[in-house]
Amino acid sequence: EVQLVESGGGLVKPGGSLRLSCAASGFTFSSYSMNWVRQAPGKGLEWVSSISSSSSYIYYADSVKGRFTISRDNAKNSLYLQMNSLRAEDTAVYYCARSDTAMVTGADYWGQGTLVTVSS
Amino acid sequence: DIQLTQSPSFLSASVGDRVTITCRASQGISSYLAWYQQKPGKAPKLLIYAASTLQSGVPSRFSGSGSGTEFTLTISSLQPEDFATYYCQQLNRPLTFGGGTKVEIK
User: Fold this and answer.
1) Residue B17 burial (CB < 10 Å; 0-12/13-18/19+)?
2) Is the dihedral of CA A114, A117, B1, B2 positive or negative?
3) B1-15 tens-digit pLDDT
4) Where would I find the H helices in chain A?
5) Backbone φ and ψ of A85, nearest 5°
6) pLDDT at A102
7) A60: which chain B residues are within 8 Å (Cβ-Cβ)?
8) Residue B82: beta bridge partners?
9) Which of A59, B31, B34, B57 satisfies CB 3.0 to 4.6 Å to A106 for a cystine?
């Protein structure tokens, strides 16, 4: 059974940092691209970042470029999101999601999400 | 970046109704479009990809069509479990989502 479990969320002050993790199981992690998608309270979905299976291709939304870094460790079946210079508008539930290698067929499995709250 | 505009943003319907949601892209995206369903407090669920391909396990009452800039998601006969919010997503980088369509019980 495919499982994605996010962790690392919490309360952080503006300007602070946080590192999210996503532990994957039930599939060959190294064969899939991975994504982070967030959802602010009461709002819609916002794509944050994607990374290809071998980390060769990395993409970011403009809203997080230069502040967030996506990475993965295929040996540990884990995906990460390092978030620096956090702002109030980064407050959201952050989901990790699996997609096909070329990232063209959508995200077929999602984690349960982890809440990040940026507030003083 | 490619913008996606969903309409309507809110829809009130009854069980058994045929429901259509539209997603318009600000520029042509071929068939690189997916549809998701999200229920409160839950992660999104992939319904359709490549504009019209039904994801495995998704009921056949869901269908998608379109290419280029205009796309539709149709639910042929709305069931109680279909009341949710629906999002389209275009799959050219950078990826973007539509604003969502909330389907509520009439």
Assistant:
1) middle
2) positive
3) 999 999 999 999 999
4) none
5) 50, 50
6) 79
7) 94
8) none
9) B34
Beta-carbon separation of B36 and A59 below 8 A: no
- Rounded distance, CA A117 to CA A54, Å? 31
CA distance B56 to A23: 24
Of B43, B93, B97, the CB nearest to A46: B97
User: Residue B57 in contact with residue B51, Cβ under 8 Å?
Assistant: no
Could you tell me how many residues make up chain B?
A: 106
Neighbours of B96 (CB within 10 A): 21
B21–A contact, CB cutoff 8 A: no
Amino acid at B31: S
Query: Nearest 5°: phi and psi at A89?
Result: -75, -5
Give B28-70 pLDDT, tens digit per residue.
Answer: 999 999 999 999 999 999 999 999 999 999 999 999 999 999 9
| Residue B70 bridge partners (DSSP) | B24, B67
Chain A neighbors of B99, CB-CB under 8 A: 44
CA distances from A75 to A24, A25, A31, A99 (A): 11, 12, 12, 19
Place of tokens 């969320």: A9
| Residue-by-residue DSSP string for A50-75 | EE-TTS--EEE-TTTTTTEEEEEETT
Q: Between chains, do A110 and B44 touch, taking CB under 8 Å as contact?
A: yes
Two tokens, residue A13: 């002050």
Among A19, A55, A64, A20, which Cα is nearest to A34's? Answer: A55
